[in-house]
Structure formats: structure tokens, C-alpha cells
Amino acid sequence: MNTFSVKELLSTNHLHQEVVVNGWVKTYRSNRFIALNDGSTINNIQCVVNFEDFDENLLKQINTGAALKVSGTLVESQGRGQKVEIQVKEIAVHGGADPEVYPIQPKKHSLEFLREKAHLRVRTNTFSAIMRVRSTLSFAVHQYFQKNGFFYVHTPIVTGSDAEGAGEMFRVSTLDAKNPPLTQEGEIDYKEDFFGKETNLTVSGQLEAETYAMGLGKVYTFGPTFRAENSNTSRHLAEFWMIEPEVAFNDLDANMDLAEDFIKYVINYTLENCKEDLEFLEQRLIAEEKTKPQAERSAMPLIEKLKFVSENTFKRVSYTEAIDILRKSKPNKKKQFKYIIDEWGADLQSEHERYLVEKHFKCPVILFDYPAKIKAFYMRLNEDGKTVRAMDILFPGIGEIVGGSQREERLDVLMEKIKALDIDEKELWWYLDLRKFGTAVHSGFGLGFERLVLFATGMGNIRDVIPFPRTPQNAEF
Ligand code: ATP
Ligand code: MG
Ligand code: MG
Ligand code: MG
């Protein structure tokens, strides 16, 4: 007898065969039906059991959450709701799950409750669907780049430079934290540390990816990134995965084209390959929306929203145009934003970003040519001397999903910037070498993978789209 996954059995290709399947009990009812799921699909296989034929002690163990091995004949189902079912001949219990203490019962649990059970929540329909979508999306990421001639570069997790300035860093050290060796000046003596200097977890692989783009041409990195963000938002994690392509000879326009094409590809791939999970998540959202006041409900169902993004051109707007729009806008009854933008040069807050996307343009927006003083040192200065070739992509319900730029390729301009910002140029000697030897126009972007998963699943909190979320005061698992 062959062992199959639930997904294979439901495909109906094995009708009338003797089959074996392993899985966890979702529900059982009328002493006759066991719904079994093994994680391969959102749907369960119905197992029809003549309970009289089985030992009482064995039957007692068949509770929600128990792991079973079931053997029998795959037949057409008489009942509604499923095409096939198993007429069970044998059951073996891998492991029971005492209903008195097993937390994941067949009822609706709150997302907050499930966050405390992060090791078990993947056994719920919602989390198994999210994690299958996440896996599919990550495959699509690699597929897109590999198909398009990019090389995957593994940039380091531990870095010796903290010049990027993208976020607060986590120190990596083998020194005794309570009693570190000190220099004569009373500062921590990193010479005694494992690497002989101060080291941190990476906040972005960009600078290293740039070095590889200047040799391999088209590269991407896709790995974990760490920021000691001391804020508890629904969009920030302390450990998240970032996708960072970098392309030699691409300017900002080509960079925007790449980002838009990439996002559309991975969303489309997910629409094609995660139909059932997306339908499930959409129904879940529709039920959730019904509990909200009308004004807060989302206008578009999940799948329609994904199709909309994959089929429509993103609106490209310069920072200066956006500021003009925001100054003239009346976002709500009170007719103003919480944070009023009164001068050119101010950084946009998420209320402004979301207004532009959700109310004004009603589509994803690419904002470009930001004021130099609110962006990182490595971005290409425009001829106006005030703005840089930066772009952010803003998404409905999310805000910023991508941050990217054309990089400053001119050594003299870069050096001036580094001096003005008081960055230690010795730390960046290797980065500056790229401008000394065979420099060229190049550009890239960073996309937070979890923000993409948030968008694709319609979930509202970033803690619910990564297996084990890392946030302030939370590293239980
Ligand atoms: P934000 O303004 O949301 O804090 P950022 O401008 O600090 O983001 P970048 O340095 O531009 O972020 O990083 C590139 C992308 O990485 C962002 O567009 C976002 O998608 C993602 N990202 C940044 N910080 C986080 C985080 N703490 N958790 C999850 N994703 C993040
Ligand atoms: Mg940030
Ligand atoms: Mg930002
Ligand atoms: Mg950014």
C-alpha cells in the first residue's frame, strides 16, 4: 500500500486504490468521521470509520490534534463537501493529544492567543495557509531572479561596519557583558573581542551586495536582517527577511521598472499556485470585516486586490509633487493630518503615505527623488544638488514596502557626503574602492519579505506572517 499526502489523495487520481495517509485529526464527529490534515493543503481528507470495528482504547485517543496513520480504500464520497473519502480499514495512533490540555481546539482562537502558541499555531487553518503562501512567495522570489539572470549572493550576517545607518543594531560579542575589558580611556576594548573589533548583526546586505554587483552584474540577496527597532508597530520586526537586488549599469528608472515587474511576478505566481489558500484567507477576512464598522472595511476582497496590483501600473510621483498634493489635501472630517507637512524637506509619515495610496491615487505608488537630507549617504545626488535618486514603493494597507535608490557612483561626491555626515571613512575603505576602480552607475532596492507576505495574505499584523516573530521583550521560542 502506498502512502500519499492529503493533497495527492484529494486530487482524485488514486480512486479505488488502497492508500495510507498520515496526519493530525482536525475534527471527528458522529463516531464515524475523522477529518485528517497533514499540512499539504488547506483541505482535509474525510476518513469514514466504523467505530464498532475498532478497539475502545484506540478510539479514545482519537481527539483533535492526535497524529494518526490511516489505511483504507479511497472511494467517491457520498456526502457533500468533498469528492473523495477513505473507507478506513486500519488506524494507528502516532501520538494522542489530551483534549484537557491541547490548546488548539476546533474553535476560533484569537490571533493574540495563537501568538503565545507560536509552536503550535501552524496546525490551524489560518497559519498553515499563511505559511504555505509564505513558502510559495519565497520560491517565486528566487525563481524571478534566477530566470532573469541574477546571481544569488550570500551577504554576511555578522558585519564589521555600522555605516549603513538603516537602523539600530544588535551587538555581536563574546566579551563578558557585565565586566568587559576596558581601554585606558575607559571604553570597551573590542580588541579582546572574538573578531578583534566591534561587530553587529546586519541591518541590510546592500553595501556588500553592491560590491558583488560590481563584478557579477546582476545579483540579489535574500536573507535575515536585524534591527533593534524599539517600536511596537504592526509593520516592524526585530528579525525580518529582506530581498535586495543590486544591478550594475541600471539607473533609477530601470530600478523602478525592476521592482514593479518583480512584485507583479511574485504576486501572480502566488495567485496561480496558492488558489485554495488565498480563497480560504479571503473568506476569513470577509468574516472578520463583518465585525468592523462600515467605514473601516476594506473595499476590495483579497484576491481582487492582488489581481489589481498585478495588472495595473504603479503610479510614479516625485517627492515634490507628493508634498504639493498633501498640502492641498483634506484627509478627513477634521481636514488635516496629525502631522502637518508645512515645508519641503520633511519626511513623510505613514498617514501621508497611506493617504496617497489609499485615497488619492488608489493604487500602489512609487515616490522618487527625495530630499537628500532625509535619505542615506550612498544615494545618487541629482543635478539640483538637493534631491537624491531614491524611491520608495507604497502599498495599500501597508505603507512602505520597498526602499531603493541609484547609488552615488562618483568618488568625490560620495566623499563629500561622508565627510558632511561625519561617517568614519576608514570603516568604508572597501566600499570606496568600488568608486576608485571601475565605478559605474548602479542601483538596487530592499523589499521587506514579511511586508510582501502581509499584503499577499491580507493579514494585519507582521507578527502573524513569520513563524517565530522577534519583537521587543519577546524571544520565547
Ligand atoms: P520603515 O520606514 O517602515 O521603518 P525603513 O525605511 O526603515 O522602513 P529600509 O531601510 O528602507 O526600511 O528597508 C527596506 C525595506 O525593509 C522596507 O521598505 C521594509 O519593507 C522593510 N523593513 C524595514 N524595516 C523593517 C522591520 N523592522 N521589519 C520588517 N520589515 C522592515
Ligand atoms: Mg525604519
Ligand atoms: Mg522608511
Ligand atoms: Mg526605507
TrEMBL record:
- UniProt cross-references to CDD domains, sorted A to Z: AsxRS_core, EcAsnRS_like_N
The residue stretches assigned to a coiled coil in this entry are 271-298
Location (main, coarse)? cytoplasm
Where does the UniProt annotation locate this protein? Cytoplasm
Pfam families in the cross-refs: tRNA-synt_2, tRNA_anti-codon
Q: Which InterPro entries match?
A: Aa-tRNA-synt_II, aa-tRNA-synth_II, aa-tRNA-synth_II/BPL/LPL, Asn-tRNA-ligase, Asp/Asn-tRNA-synth_IIb, NA-bd_OB-fold, NA-bd_OB_tRNA
Q: Start and end of every Aminoacyl-transfer RNA synthetases class-II family profile domain? A: 131-467
Swiss-Prot/TrEMBL keywords: Aminoacyl-tRNA synthetase, ATP-binding, Coiled coil, Cytoplasm, Ligase, Nucleotide-binding, Protein biosynthesis
Give the matching Gene3D superfamilies: Bira Bifunctional Protein, Domain 2, Nucleic acid-binding proteins
Which GO cellular component terms, listed alphabetically, does the Swiss-Prot or TrEMBL entry include? cytoplasm
Provide the E.C. number(s) assigned to this enzyme. 6.1.1.22
Q: Which reaction does it catalyse?
A: tRNA(Asn) + L-asparagine + ATP = L-asparaginyl-tRNA(Asn) + AMP + diphosphate + H(+)
Could you provide one GO biological process annotation from this protein's UniProt record?
Answer: asparaginyl-tRNA aminoacylation
What Gene Ontology molecular function terms does this protein carry?
asparagine-tRNA ligase activity; ATP binding; nucleic acid binding
Per UniProt, subunit arrangement is: Homodimer.
Q: Which family does it belong to?
A: Belongs to the class-II aminoacyl-tRNA synthetase family.
Q: Which PANTHER family match?
A: ASPARAGINE--TRNA LIGASE, MITOCHONDRIAL-RELATED (PTHR22594:SF34), ASPARTYL/LYSYL-TRNA SYNTHETASE (PTHR22594)
What's the protein called, per UniProt? Asparagine--tRNA ligase
Name the source organism: Arenibacter aquaticus
Its organism's taxonomic lineage begins at: Bacteria, Pseudomonadati, Bacteroidota, Flavobacteriia, Flavobacteriales
Gene name?
Answer: asnS
